[in-house]
Amino acid sequence: MPVLLKKELGVVENSYYEATVTRPPAQPSLTQRLQADVCVVGGGYAGLSAALELAERGYSVVLLEAQRVGWGASGRNGGQVIVGFGSDGEEAIERQFGLQDARRAWDISVDAIRLLQRRIARYGIGCEWRTGYLSLATKPRKAQELRRWMDRVQSTYDYPLQWVDNGALRQWVDSARFHSAVFDAGSGHLHPLKYCLGLAAAARGAGARIFENSPVFVVERGRRPVVRTAQGECACDFVVLAGNVYLGEYGDAIAPEVCSRIMPVGTYMIATERMAPQRAAALIPSRCAASDTNFILDYFRLSDDHRLLFGGGDSYTGTTPRNLIGQIRRSMMGVFPQLKDLEVAHAWGGFVDITMNMAPHFGRLGANVYFVQGFSGHGLALSGMAGLMVAEAIAGQAERFDLLARIRHLPFPGGALMRTPALVLGMWYYRLRDAL
Ligand SMILES: Cc1cc2nc3c(=O)[nH]c(=O)nc-3n(C[C@H](O)[C@H](O)[C@H](O)COP(=O)(O)OP(=O)(O)OC[C@H]3O[C@@H](n4cnc5c(N)ncnc54)[C@H](O)[C@@H]3O)c2cc1C
């Protein structure tokens, strides 16, 4: 069994999101030889979005998912739909591109949220979408950094943000843990798995053929690539690799040059039991999604059925922490000690795909194999946009895709074997920095 999947056993099972959806019957697995214009590998937001956009443009599309649609990060995440790129990503883009192109890249991240909202409306996806997001500083030094970030984003990208000072903060989040915050009215939150299943239904409706329980082991590159599963294959003109951190787990030969540039970082979530609606509303009166600005961050929001969904506790070793519930619950109590009587009803986790510089990693292998990955904690909106941009590129309009594909990425030091110890060392440094 692939290594990451083994590490995940047990943490996927009790997800709040899986418990609150009704999945349609499984799609068949691929057992035949098919022809298609495009074969997409991976049924998360990125792959489904590419399949949807391509099918709507008249391409014949086959999507192959190793497990069930939304089984990966797209069905398990914090639900926070956030503008911009991973923590250091914006600066990496500014350094590499200069301001004019960095502005174009930022606008793509803003468009990503608009695209998500358009899709929710157009396909009638009931996924509990709400606007409003808070970045929270835990101490004065973090507040100064946050203020500088806000000023830079407002002046460089002309993106509206609002400062919330210490005196006003409790009207937004009822916690003494935070010093101040930035409010972003353009970002928001939703039920990630409902959104993902809605995208899958839209892609099927547009004519994409989706196969589940169909892991791809080999992609034979060439003028007309062939994508192989254990019992079937698909010959196509274009391949889209959207397998996230799992891609290399199924076959070393699929795209090793791509897999070494992202690192799977474990992050874990709990959902409390339900609260009375007034109690939940008093906890986060703004109903915003929220996360602190620490490198190893806590993130939280209310669900529509009045639970607190709380995440954090990144694991850079890839192994699920022992006493997972106890650990995340302790972090939650650090923020909301008033919840000490509440039981934890669900706990789950998964891997975030981070790159060295926290900017997304897009590109082509040869002329006809596209890949999108490395969303570095900002994938909810951006991965959907990535799917659209791949479709645009295949259809001959590659400006937006090529802009982000220009971002240079280094592989993690030590390659697939040594990248984990190297990163664990790096994490101790960041842990120390957060604590100062
Ligand atoms: C716990 C958690 C919290 C997060 N919180 C947030 C958040 O609040 N906001 C945010 O923006 N981002 C968040 N993220 C990250 C975000 O969820 C991801 O960036 C995004 O979902 C990536 O989408 P994707 O389609 O690239 O990958 P995935 O959703 O992981 O989909 C990839 C799919 O490809 C399939 N696959 C892989 N290899 C193969 C193969 N060889 N053959 C067939 N199928 C294959 C996998 O089974 C999987 O279903 C979080 C992630 C986690 C795990």
Q: Which ligands, by name, code or SMILES, are bound?
A: flavin-adenine dinucleotide
Q: In CATH terms, what is the architecture of the domain at 3-76 and 194-262 and 357-413?
A: 3-Layer(bba) Sandwich
By CATH, the superfamily of the domain at 3-76 and 194-262 and 357-413 comes out as: FAD/NAD(P)-binding domain
Individual helix count:
14
Helix content: 25-40%
Unreliable segments (pLDDT under 50, ≥5 consecutive)?
none
CATH class of the domain at 3-76 and 194-262 and 357-413: Alpha Beta
Global outline: globular
The biggest beta sheet is recorded as: 9 strands, mixed
- State the end-to-end distance: 41 Å
Remind me, CATH topology of the domain at 3-76 and 194-262 and 357-413? FAD/NAD(P)-binding domain
In terms of DSSP E residues, the strand content is 15-25%
> What Rg do the Cα atoms give?
21 Å
Structural class given helices, strands, pairing? Answer: alpha/beta
Number of strands: 17
Q: Can you give the mean pLDDT?
A: 91
Plain-language structure description:
- By secondary structure, the chain is an alpha/beta fold.
- The protein has a domain at 3-76 and 194-262 and 357-413: FAD/NAD(P)-binding domain (3-Layer(bba) Sandwich), CATH 3.50.50.
- It has helices at residues 3-8, 16-19, 45-56, 89-97, 99-122, 140-157, 192-205, 247-250, 256-259, 277-283, 324-335, 379-394, 399-405, 415-435; strands at residues 33-41, 61-64, 80-81, 130-137, 162-164, 180-189, 209-211, 216-220, 226-229, 233-241, 263-272, 289-292, 299-302, 308-315, 344-354, 361-365, 369-373.
- Strands 3, 4, 5, 6, 11, 12, 13, 14 and 15 form a nine-stranded mixed sheet that branches.
- The longest helix is centred in the first third of the chain and has 24 residues, at 99-122.
- The radius of gyration is 21 Å and the shape is globular.
- Flavin-adenine dinucleotide binds at residues 41-47, 64-67, 71-74, 76-80, 82, 215-216, 242-244, 246-247, 250, 254, 267, 269, 299, 311, 349-353, 375, 377-380, 383.
